[in-house]
């Protein structure tokens, strides 16, 4: 389906609650594919069929752009690249995960252990660690590592024959997530940064460099949204779900959503000290075990913001991070 001039959307299925991932073929020189879907037979069949309808095959792809290193967005990329010789573009902060043979489940990676220690200190019961999806062996089966041949940074311009795509670094959901902005056509390819009916979760993330602190992902995401509002955009081509024609309204609704949730967290902390897991359980009392990392990320994100605002204090006691309210949160 052509969703903007010479840009075609090809959805590919996933087993995840967010649904199909939207892959985009930019019919230009070089022929460019943005994101791919998972390494599953169903996704591969859907993508091959979508390209065939347009008169193309995997071997015709000359350039691949990966918005971020979550496997539903790149799991199939190595298969595509193996049938041709495309340039592969991604942000430097995503390269390690894209190229790592073990993906997220690499127990030799210090980030793995930093994340595990942080979650346990944040009150997560040890038995729930095994329910975190990124630790599951199946994740290795849903992607192949892909070699990035061109790292792109904020402000870089990817030039095609008939359009220019400006790289917009959008940390939050993933530290090196990028959007692609065509100012002439007023089109933004947003990956998971903006979705019509779902508020993307800024995930707990520790940098590859163990000397660097954990990112404040929710605060980063809200700053990203404020930045996107400065762009002149008519249409947002999203990574999942419907196309967006009212970007600023969607951004405003996400900001309000997080403001309401932040205040709910603050009220919950008015009493005995709580862990991030207590906050997660309060926000999402019926959360499925396999979504616990998303819930913990949301809870930690709001606690980060409240702590920065001086509305919450954190102390470590008996091996746990405990939070209690201190003052009023900012508006």
Characteristic terms for this protein:
331 residues; alpha/beta; Metallo-beta-lactamase, Chain A; Arc Repressor Mutant, subunit A; 2 domains
What does this structure look like?
The chain has ten helices and 14 strands. The strands form three sheets. The protein has a seven-stranded mixed sheet. A five-stranded mixed sheet has the order 8-9-10-11-12, with no helix packed on it. Strands 13-14 form a two-stranded antiparallel sheet. The chain has about 325 residues and is α/β, with parallel strands linked by helices. The protein starts with a strand and ends in a 6-residue tail after the last strand. Helices cover about 30% and strands about 20% of the residues. Helix 8 packs across helix 10 (about 290-310) and helix 9 (about 275-285) packs across helix 10. It folds into two domains: about 1-105 and about 140-255, Ribonuclease Z/Hydroxyacylglutathione hydrolase-like (Metallo-beta-lactamase, Chain A); about 110-135 and about 260-325, Orthogonal Bundle (Arc Repressor Mutant, subunit A).
């Amino acid at each position: 389906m052509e969703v903007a001039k010479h840009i075609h959307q090809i959805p590919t299925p996933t087993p995840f609650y967010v649904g199909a991932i939207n892959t985009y073929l930019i019919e230009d020189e070089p022929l460019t594919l943005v994101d791919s879907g998972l390494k599953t037979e169903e996704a591969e069949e859907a993508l091959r069929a979508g390209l065939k309808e347009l008169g193309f095959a995997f071997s015709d792809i000359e350039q691949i752009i990966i918005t971020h290193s979550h496997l539903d967005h790149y799991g199939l990329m190595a298969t595509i690249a193996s049938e041709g010789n495309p340039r592969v573009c991604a942000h430097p902060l995503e390269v390690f995960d894209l190229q790592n043979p073990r993906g997220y489940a690499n127990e030799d990676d210090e980030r793995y252990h930093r994340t595990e220690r942080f979650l346990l200190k944040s009150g997560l019961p040890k038995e729930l660690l095994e329910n975190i999806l990124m630790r599951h062996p199946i994740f290795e089966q849903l992607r192949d590592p892909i070699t990035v041949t061109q790292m792109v940074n904020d402000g870089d311009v990817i030039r095609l024959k008939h359009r220019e795509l400006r790289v917009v670094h959008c940390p939050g959901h993933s530290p090196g997530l990028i959007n692609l902005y065509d100012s002439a056509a007023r089109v933004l390819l947003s990956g998971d940064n903006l979705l019509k009916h779902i508020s993307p979760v800024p995930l707990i993330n520790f940098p590859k460099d163990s000397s660097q602190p954990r990112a404040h992902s929710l605060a980063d995401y809200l700053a990203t949204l404020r930045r996107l509002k400065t762009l002149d955009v008519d249409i947002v081509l999203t990574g999942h779900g419907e196309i967006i024609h009212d970007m600023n309204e969607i951004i405003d609704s996400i900001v309000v959503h997080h403001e309401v949730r932040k205040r709910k967290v603050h009220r919950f902390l008015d009493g005995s000290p709580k862990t991030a897991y207590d906050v997660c359980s309060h926000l999402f009392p019926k959360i499925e075990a396999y979504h616990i990392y998303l819930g913990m990320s949301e809870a930690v994100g709001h606690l980060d913001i409240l702590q920065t605002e001086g509305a919450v204090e954190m102390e470590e006691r008996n091996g746990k991070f405990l939070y209690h309210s201190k003052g009023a949160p900012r508006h």
